[in-house]
Amino acid sequence: MEHITLLLAIVIVTALVFDFTNGFHDTANAMATTISTGAMKPKAAVAMSAVLNLVGAFLSVEVAKTISSGIVNESGITPEVIFAALVGAILWNLLTWLIGLPSSSSHALMGGLIGATIASVGTSGVNGGTIVTKVLIPAIAAPLVAGLAAYLASRLTYRIGRNTDPKSTAKGYRAGQIASAGLVSLAHGTNDAQKTMGVITLALVAGGVLVPGSNPPMWVIASAGIAIALGTYLGGWRIIRTMGKGLTDLQPQQGFAAQTSAASVILASSNLGFSLSTTHSCSGAVMGAGLGRKGGVVRWSTATRMFVAWGLTLPAAGLVAAGSEYVTKQGDWGVAAVAVFLIASSTAIWFISRRQVVDHNNVNDVSDGDEPGVVTTAIAAVTPPPAGVSMSHSLDDLKTTIPARNAATPEAGPASPAAV
C-alpha cells in the first residue's frame, strides 16, 4: 500500500469540507418542518439531527459504491480530477445556501464529477447508463413519489382527526414529528454521508492506495460521518427558513406526514444504492403536505426558484469543475491556484451572508413578502376552511375584504359619503 501524498491529502480534506457544507446545507431536510411548527426548539433540533446523521453514516455503503465505481470509470481518474469536482460542488452549495434555496448537494457532487471527468478524459470516462438509472430518474421520481405520499398522508390524518379537538391532536402530531424528524436525519446520514465516503474512496483508488472496487475503509466512514454531523449541528438556517416557512405554512399533522413520507423514500433508495437527493425528496414532501390540507397553499414563486436551481445544479457545478480541472492540469501551481480560488470565493460568500444574518433566533421570521399567486388564491377561495375555523370568521374576513355598497346609490354612480 502506497503512502498518501500531499495532493491526495488535499483532496481528502476538501472532500470532508464538502461533507461539512452538505451537512449544514441539508439540515433543513430533516428539521425545517419540526422547527417551523414548534415541535422542537431550533438548537435542540439540529443537535438531535447531527447525532443521528453520525449514526446513519455507519448503516450502509451501497451509495458509496455507486459514487466510487458507478458514475465515472475509475481508470484514468486522477486526484486532480476529484479535487476539481469537489471545488464545483462546494461553491454551488455555498451559493445556494447564501440565497436560501434548498438545492441538491448530491447533484452538485455528481455534476462536479461529471464535468471534471469529461474535461480530463472525455465522455468515455462517464457511465451514462448509471447516471440515467441511478441519478436522473430518481431525481425526477423522488419529489413526485414523496409529494404524492405526503399529500395522501395529510389528507388521511385530517380525515381521521376531523372529529377530535385540534389542540389535543396537534400535541400528538408534534411528538410524532420529533420521531419522524429523527428518522429523516438517520436516512440523511445513511444516504448523504456515503457520497463523501465514495469520493474519498475514489480518490484513494486513483492515488493507488486502494485497489479498484474496494469498500470505504473504516476511517473514511468515521471521518465522513463526523464531518456531516458537525455541519448539521451548525445549522443551515437560511434554507431551514425557506423549507419551513417559505414554501408553505404547515400544521403539525402536515409536518408529520411530510417527514415520514420523505424518510421512507430516502431509506428505500439507500438500500437500493440510488444516489438520491434528500433535498428533492423532502421538498416534494413539504409541497405535497402543504396541498394535503383543505385551504392549504404552496408559494409557487418560491417553488419555481427552487426548481430552477435544481435544473442548474448539474451543469453549473460541472462547468466550474471543468474549469478547475483545466487549471489543475497545469501542474502544482494550478492546484494551488484553484485552492486559493476556492478559499477566496468561500470567504467572500461568508462575508456577504453576514450582511443579513439568519440564525436560530429569527429562523421562523418570514419577511420576504412572498404572496401566493392568482391560481393559488383562487383555489383557496373556493376551498372549505380547515377544521377549527368557523364560518362566521370566514364571513367576517369577506366583509372586510369587499366593502358594502349603499342600496340607495345607483349601480353605475359614485359611492355616497355614507358608504365610504
What does the secondary structure layout of this molecule look like, with pairings?
Blueprint: H1 6-25, H2 27-36, H3 42-56, H4 62-69, H5 79-98, H6 105-121, H7 128-160, H8 166-206, H9 218-234, H10 237-246, H11 252-272, H12 278-292, H13 300-328, H14 332-353, H15 374-381, H16 391-401
Please describe the structure with a list of short key phrases separated by commas or semicolons:
420 residues; 16 helices; phosphate transport; transport; globular; Phos_transporter; mainly alpha; Phosphate transporter; disordered C terminus
Poorly predicted sequence stretches spanning 5 or more consecutive residues: 368-420
Number of helices: 16
Q: How many distinct folded domains?
A: 2
Shape: globular
The radius of gyration is 24 Å
Question: Percent helix among the residues?
Answer: over 70%
For the largest beta-sheet, the strand count, sense and barrel status come to: none
* Separation of the first and last Cα atoms: 87 Å
Q: What average pLDDT do the residues reach?
A: 79
% residues in beta strands: under 5%
The secondary-structure element order is HHHHHHHHHHHHHHHH
Structural class: mainly alpha
Number of E strands? 0
